[in-house]
Amino acid sequence: SELLVHDEKNPDPSYSFLLSALESPQHPVPLGIFRAIERPSFDQLVHSQIAEAKKKMGEGDLKKLLYSETWTVK
Questions:
Q1: How far, in Å, CA of 54 to CA of 36, rounded?
Q2: What does pTM read for this prediction?
Q3: What is 1-65 written as a DSSP string?
Q4: pLDDT at residue number 22
């Protein structure tokens, strides 16, 4: 039999998902860190996206947006 060494930094989540599905008594219960991926948080990505939009299109003008052309949906 072969020995499988777990790598919690593997970007592919399928192996970690497989580990989480193991159940006793057929299989040993896995304990520990299944995944440890370093990447920006959702919050960081949103702030970065907003900063890029402001850089590209400017700060914007809320008053101009609110009092611009409007239409009625019937």
A1: 32
A2: 0.49
A3: -PPPPP-TT-S-THHHHHHHT--TTTSPPP-S-S-------HHHHHHHHHHHHHHHH-S--HHHH
A4: 83
